[in-house]
Amino acid sequence: MTTARVTTARTTGADEGAILALLRASQDAWDRGDGAAYGACFTDDATDVTFAGTVYRGGAEIGRAHQALFDGFLKGSRLVMEVIDLRRYGSDTAVVLTRGDVVKGKQGRLGKLATYTLVRDAAGLWRIASVQKTKHKPLMEAVSFTFQPATRPAAPAR
Questions:
Q1: Spatial CA neighbour of 81 closest among 10, 156, 141, 25
Q2: Are 17 and 6 in contact (CB under 8 A)?
Q3: Are 99 and 157 in contact (CB under 8 A)?
Q4: What pLDDT is stored for residue 4 in this prediction?
Q5: CATH numbers and ranges of domains, the chain
Q6: Contact 46, 126 (CB under 8 A)
Q7: 93 by DSSP, 3-state: which?
Q8: Chain-centre distance of CA 52, in angstroms?
Q9: CA dist., res. 94 & res. 118, Å (int)
Q10: Winning range, highest mean pLDDT, from 16-30, 96-110, 127-141
């Protein structure tokens, strides 16, 4: 996992490191095909919305469903993730925007964006409370910007 840009608001180096370590742990669990370890990165009441629109609830269900995926068509896949932005909202909440993709073999263009909401649990550990994944559609985006220039963001996501 690489970090393109990290912005902080009341973030200590230890907090930032722990947040990034949690994302790396989820990535490592994915790469090993370990659904239980992947699900353990989430809170008990987490929400995982896939780019296809499937909604999984809770770390146990997220882990169980991903194990089935890892044993099936995602067998041998890797989760590639680049942190675009990290923002803190109070001492126990962070929002992280990533660009990434699931790959088998050679890595291509990172075609998905994910927004993670992370919270610090009662034990002081960071966990993923929600993640929303979206497939980036550059052609649709370009058409929109051409015909409606006011829809172009002030600063593009890196």
A1: 25
A2: no
A3: yes
A4: 40
A5: 2-151 (3.10.450.50)
A6: no
A7: strand
A8: 15
A9: 5
A10: 16-30
pLDDT for the residue numbered 55: 94
Residue 90 backbone zone (phi > 0: left; psi -120 to 50: alpha; other: beta): left
Residue 59, classified by CB atoms within 10 Å of its CB into exposed (0-12), middle (13-18) or buried (19+), is buried
Give residue-wise pLDDT tens across range 137-156.
Answer: 766 767 777 888 777 778 75
Rounded to 5°, the CA angle 37-6-42 comes to 20
100 bridge partner residues:
81, 112
Please check whether residue 113 is in contact with residue 97, taking contact to mean a CB–CB distance below 8 angstroms: yes
Q: Six-digit token pair at 156?
A: 């593009």
| 2-18 average pLDDT score | 61
